[in-house]
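This section describes the prediction task in plain terms. A model, or a person checking by hand, is given the sequence of a single protein chain and must write out its three-dimensional structure as a string of tokens. No templates, partner chains or ligands are provided. The sample shown here is typical of the held-out split.
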Amino acid sequence: MIRVAGKTLQAEDASAYASGALEKAMFHTLLNSRTQYQYDSPERLKFELRLRREIINAAREQYRSGLNFAVFRKSKCNPAYWERTREGGFRMKPGVKASDAIRDIFENGSQYATECATALLILYYKALLNMMPEDAFNKTFPSIYLMNWHRIDRILQEVGNINRASDYLPGDRRYFMNPDVDPLTPEWQGENVIDLGDGTYYGHGIGIGSADNIIKVLNQNRMERADDSAYLMDSAGRPDFDKLYNIYRRSAA
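The expected answer:
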């Protein structure tokens, strides 16, 4: 069920809130849920649907970018925009615009290498850059430090949490767990992915594939005589859409 400003929406309201097929599919998932989703305004619901679409767009952009996979000790970045820290993270250089630094990862991906959690954090920034005026994006993120879920800007800190959800939607962060991972390759203990909304998922280092395909890849990196298959966890990670909407609304004013 969806309620907007106290009004319960119906199926015929979809066109007023969703501009494309993907947004309409998300709208109907929310509408048909037993959970009640409440929004203060029509613009707030439209924002969430659009940001979810942009998260998916950024995932596909990243897939095409040539961004390499590497564990932290072998990570690399373009020194024109980023300083590689001793831990293997990327710190934006002083005097650099955040919009230029994030965009460079997508335009010159072959100059970068990192692991899957950091890659997903990067695409959240790109999704917001796709939506916000460039000046507003740069004011919102005067500095950026990229390193998995442990060094997250407070504006995006919620994406580091993964919890049970009533419904799973395109643009959600999901996680495939590999409980019997080979201890010699701990980087394959699991895969952070974005639900692309068409039955496939994007995970940095694995690419785009179905749940079965991703599980197959992870199962190839288990210890000898492993008993337990990799599996998709029954949980999701999401940004704080209310917080981001308020920032977006101020930037568009």
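For orientation: DSSP finds eight helices and 13 strands in the chain.
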